[in-house]
Amino acid sequence: MTWLTNKRIVIIGGTTGIGLSAAQAFVREGARVVVVGRNPESCAAAEQYLAGGGLAMTGDAAEPGTAQRAIDLCRQLFDGFDGLYHVAGGSGRKFGDGPLHELTLEGWHETFSMNLTSLMLSNQTAIRAFQEQGSGGTILNMSSVLGYSPSPRHFVTHAYAAAKSAVFGFTKSIAAYYAADNIRVNVIAPALVETPMAQRAANDQEILAFIRTKQPLDGGRIGTPDDLDGAAVYFMSDYSRYATGQILTVDGGWSVSEGQY
After folding, report:
1. How far is it, in rounded angstroms, from Cα 78 to Cα 227?
2. How distant, in Å, are the alpha carbons of 40, 113, 154 from that of 173?
3. Nearest 5 degrees, angle CA 27-CA 29-CA 33?
4. Strands 32-37 and 183-190
5. What is the distance in angstroms between the CA of the first residue and the CA of the last residue of the chain?
6. In this structure, are residues 233 and 18 in contact, taking their beta carbons and an 8 Å threshold?
7. Which among 112, 197, 238, 245 has the fewest CB atoms less than 10 Å away?
């Protein structure tokens, strides 16, 4: 018996990076998945990686209706819906996120749309689906250590930090409200992980030197997407049936290390 046998899961932001790695782990553990991404090419590639264990759907997480289409597809294909993993988000640097004195209104709005509005929409849709089914269910949201453990020299994006911090409060609030319905809502908060979004940092030698002391586990390195798979499998499984409103930091030691410049 695997951890996710017969679970039917939707992953918003599941066609690359952390989401795709989780999707593959979920399938290995017995789940069937629907993954959502914005790029048709990455969707096609994701289906190949899933090797028959899931389907990819093109959609923008920040658009109303995307999560509903994904959950409807999950129900249609797999005759039900058990869990949502919301990974989608991104940096707003190109829109004007940064230090407060340089932050643009467009940067603020775009960053919140990508990282908080999209998450609200998917969580709302999942909650309604669980209510319609008369079942419990599980939601796992993606945040970041930057929501509570800033790094002002190398990672100064104040809108992003605010949005990721809001994920903590939002998750705890809905976890409290829906606990009596046996709906669990939890958060994973990683530090720097090697993903398409992290290429600025991953290719900067000064930042890599900093990471060796800020994320000192396993020799001091950037995280890899599969470093988060175990935590995601746990929260999507029945082994976490008595856990809700929790924040699990998977950060290589970031939040307990000084980091040296």
Report:
1. 28
2. 34, 19, 31
3. 30
4. unpaired
5. 47
6. no
7. 238
In whole angstroms, give the CA distance from residue 4 to residue 186. 17
Q: How far is Cα 251 from Cα 260, in angstroms, rounded to an integer?
A: 16
Tokens 């004007």 belong to residue: 96
State which H helix or E strand residue 15 sits in. Answer: none
Residue 229 has which token pair? 């798979």
Residue entry with tokens 């951890």 = 3
Amino acid letter for position 68: Q
Is the pTM value of this prediction over 0.90?
A: yes
| pLDDT at residue 139 in the model | 98
Cα–Cα distance measured from residue 58 to residue 16, given in angstroms and rounded to the nearest whole number: 12
CA distances from 118 to 26, 79, 115 (A): 22, 25, 6
Q: pLDDT, tens digit, for every residue of 186-231?
A: 999 999 999 887 888 888 999 999 999 999 999 999 999 999 999 9
Single-letter amino acid, residue 52: G
Q: Which stretches in the chain have pLDDT values below 50?
A: none
**Of 158, 179, 145, residue with least CA distance to 101:** 158
What is the structure's pLDDT at 84? 98
